[in-house]
Structure formats: structure tokens, C-alpha cells
TrEMBL record:
InterPro entries hit by this protein: CHP04206, DUF7549
Superkingdom as given in the UniProt entry: Archaea
Keyword field contains Transmembrane helix: yes
Coiled coil regions in record: none
Protein name: TIGR04206 family protein
Keywords for the protein's UniProt record, in alphabetical order: Membrane, Transmembrane, Transmembrane helix
Segments passing through the bilayer: 12-30, 76-103, 115-138, 144-163
UniProt cross-references to Pfam families, sorted A to Z: DUF7549 (PF24417)
């Protein structure tokens, strides 16, 4: 059974790319001594909400490239670096999706490979990088981290790589 019909594969590739860009790649939650922290990591930025206290030097909004420098431990700094690598990797399918949306026939004529498979491979790379970063947060960050967007990217990558393009 095909999840996506061949004639809609291009549109699905564009939509999948945009959804990966909008979804948080991980969500973290922890509570310690009456202070609750919720962290939402999107590809270009991180929001962190602290409830129950005001911490000195806390920055609730950071761009992706600022996260690694803000982390105190080596595994979390590496997770921030992987997040930046995922952002850089995502810029290629994002730019391609905008062009593909506007000129699907032209893109298919110019690329030496199927653009839907290319989207699948690139989103798979983003998914692997964000899943690796999430794994570092899971092992080094107190509380719970759920790799929502990382899994979404990998599912979309699988669907795009396995779509029947007759």
C-alpha cells in the first residue's frame, strides 16, 4: 500500500519539508526544587520557559548557533552543535522546496535525480542529526526530552524515499 500517490509526491515533499521546519525537533521538561523548565528546540532557535523562579543570566530565546556556547557541559554543547548542523542541512531542502513549489517541472528537468528522493535523503539527514542531538539531551539533561520533530523528519524521509515514482 502506497502512503502517497505518485502524482502527489512532489507536493508531499514540499509540505513535509515545511512541516519539519515548523515542528520543534525536541521538547524538554524538568522540575527541580519547585522550578519547572520547558525547552522547545526548533531548527533555527530555542525557547526556554522557566516557571517558579527567576534565574540570573537566563536567556529564554536563543538562536541555534548560540545554544552550544550557552551550554555548560560538553555533551549539551555537542547537542547544540548538532542542532546547528541540522539547521544548515535543512536550509538546502527548504530552499529547494520553495523553488520546487514555484517551478516543479523546471526542477525535475534540471536535477539528475528524482527530487522527491532528494527531499527524502535531506530530511533523513536532518532527522538523524536532530535525533542524535536529542539523544545527548536525553542522557545529559535532567528530566524528560521527547524528540518530536526528529521522529517526524525521519518518518517523512522514509515516506519520501519509498514513494512509488513510476
Amino acid at each position: 500500500m502506497a502512503w502517497v500517490k505518485s502524482e502527489y509526491a512532489g507536493e508531499f515533499a514540499v509540505l513535509a519539508t515545511w512541516l519539519v521546519g515548523l515542528a520543534p525537533w525536541s521538547v524538554s521538561l524538568f522540575e527541580i526544587e519547585g522550578v519547572t523548565v520547558v525547552g522547545l528546540r526548533f531548527l533555527p532557535f530555542r525557547f526556554q520557559f522557566i516557571f517558579g523562579a527567576t534565574l540570573p543570566g537566563e536567556r529564554p530565546f536563543l538562536w541555534a548557533w548560540q545554544v552550544a556556547a550557552f551550554q555548560e557541559s560538553e555533551p549539551l554543547a555537542l547537542a547544540g552543535t548538532l542542532g546547528v548542523a541540522a539547521l544548515v542541512g535543512f536550509l538546502c531542502p527548504l530552499g529547494l522546496s520553495l523553488y520546487y513549489y514555484a517551478a516543479e517541472d523546471r526542477v525535475e528537468a534540471v536535477l539528475p535525480m528524482d527530487p522527491v528522493r532528494l527531499f527524502g535523503g535531506l530530511l533523513g539527514l536532518v532527522g538523524v542529526l536532530t535525533l542524535a542531538a536529542s539523544g545527548l539531551f536525553i542522557t545529559s539533561f535532567p528530566g524528560i526530552t521527547v524528540p518530536i520533530g526528529a521522529l517526524v523528519a525521519l518518518v517523512f524521509a522514509y515516506l519520501l524515499l519509498t514513494v512509488d515514482r513510476a
